[in-house]
Amino acid sequence: KPSWKRVEAYFQENSPVLDLVLHVSNFSHNKGGPEEVIRFGSAEGIARYKSGRYGIELFLAGSILIMALYHFIIFFIRRTDRSALFFALLCLCVSIKTTMGGEKVFLDMIPWIDWTTAVRIEYLLTLSSIPLFMLFFQNVFRKEISIWAVRSAVAVFFILGAVVLATEAAFFTMLGPAMIALVLLFGLYAIVPVTMALIRKRQGAALFLAGLVVLFLSVLNDFLFNTMLVDTTFLIPAGYSIGLFIFILSQSSVLALRFSSAFATVEELSRDLEKKVDERTAELQDERNKLEKIAIEDDLTGLYNRRYSLEYLKSEFYRFSRYGTVFSVLIIDLDHFKKVNDTYGHLAGDVLLREIGSVLKAMMRMSDVCGRFGGEEFIIVLPGTGMDAAAALAEKIRARIESLEPAAGDSRYSVSCSIGLAQANGEDGNYNVVLQRADSALYAAKDRGRNRVVCME
Prior knowledge:
The protein is an alpha+beta fold.
């Protein structure tokens, strides 16, 4: 049966002349006989040489396999970028292919596999690396590579792969030099667009080109050795796979650069988005504040509007009912305001209302609420204020308004007000009762001649 098994023969040296006879028969492969030079040495030296090569092959295959698993994980996390998938598949093929050269680690790990199947797997792995490389290349440098080159690589894989699967090893192993030539051809083609990408300053182009050149030289060495044109170390199908390992390492760096750049871009976009969100939130808060202000403020006087003033009065009455916290209510009405409108015009009336609003606002405490009740009427809610203190404040307001001399064109006119005052007491069933008593006090002030303060017990 044909075999790839690496054999170590140990013997005792009994004479100065060693007669070595090597019997070779080959009916199954394009090439027969020893794959490499037969090495002689001490038992310890040969064992050390074999274990060294074995260890290097396991190290390279394991390292490349870890790269494959890592990029598979990256692809499953971020499936939109297929370059990680094609690179992971390429690494997986190369990892297995590495164990099938040199010391044939693959056959030691799976001893039950027959030689013909192992040869088919090796050739299919070599063929599959061509389209996987081109697909990976296309996803990294999409603008530089032709889609027809990628399709050609895929077509070559299916055609030659079918030949490998359908024919005997004695036939398809004759394709070995052709496959290496195809790898050289596609590698040579790839150098041109990668050089263009380097000129265009594409990210990772320099690393990609360096790894590609090393791979190209390794495959070229393999081709020359396989055709017996040179006698050098068999870099690719032998156990070391140095050129291919360097290429994969460089491409891992290219992908790492791309992902790092993508993450940096995402972080920058996230910062910009957070900034825009903060700015928009501030704008929305400003708009909300404006809307809230519009909802509770009288746009002419700048005081609170009727709705908010009544809501506040209602809440104060609730506090009074629950905790006994005293409060008073003032209702202010400008005397003869209609005469101002009729004599000086509505614009003069608006000016007067704004001036009254400024006067009232200046005389309020932080806890007081002063609002425009409607027309020329104003309401003031005084939390924690009894009748006497409220009456004193009402008198100050009356005197301050009386001291005003509003201007209307070249003329000035006098103004006065009537004020009704009521303090909440235990007999009030709701806030409307307090409000009605203050309103009754206001009408009493008007009936008594205006320009005065009237308190309603």
